[in-house]
Amino acid sequence: MPSVSTKPYLIRAIHEWCSDHGFTPYLVVAVRSKMQVPMEYVKNGEIVLNISYNATRNLTLGNDYVSFSARFNGVSREIVIPVGAVVSIFSRENGEGMGFEYEGVPEDLADNAPATVDGESGDGPDDEPPRPTGGGRPQLRVVK
Q1: Residue 124: left if φ>0, alpha if ψ -120 to 50, beta else—which one?
Q2: Residue 114, class by beta-carbon neighbours within 10 Å (0-12 exposed, 13-18 middle, 19+ buried)?
Q3: Predicted TM-score of the model (pTM)
Q4: In the record, what terms sit under GO molecular function (predicted)?
Q5: What is the CATH number of domain 7-109?
Q6: Cβ pair 138, 72 in contact under 8 A
Q7: What ranges make up the beta strands (E) of 10-144?
Q8: Residues 25, 91 contacting (CB under 8 angstroms)
Q9: Structure confidence by residue, pLDDT tens digits, 80-127
Q10: Over the stretch 36-70, which tens digit does the pLDDT of each residue have?
């Protein structure tokens, strides 16, 4: 019987703990190949994402992927992250959380990655993300 990873369960548990205590859960992701993340915010091969319910829409913490939509510099983006690429999840307020080993992305998962809302994979040359106009650190904010 193949071993099942505990990583997605631990990610969900830390996310729930943060949410229950009013903390903001942040996810650190090792960005490799053609991941569906805003590449203009990747620094040193990693991206840090606010995955709180207030900052995301349709958040799914699945066994194979973390997916959600969020606004980056006012533009809504669909984010799809393989669980194997998650390096850590932690609370912004106190830094408590958990770190993980980078597991890579199995080829069968990379080939079967969920499509975006419009049905395209986001791999085309016309899918280059817009560059942020302002300097400084990227921030997610709630728009009502």
Answers
A1: beta
A2: middle
A3: 0.70
A4: peptidase activity
A5: 2.30.30.220
A6: yes
A7: 25-30, 46-50, 57-61, 65-72, 75-82, 86-91, 97-99
A8: yes
A9: 999 999 999 999 999 999 998 888 765 544 444 444 333 333 333 333
A10: 899 999 999 999 999 999 999 999 999 999 999 99
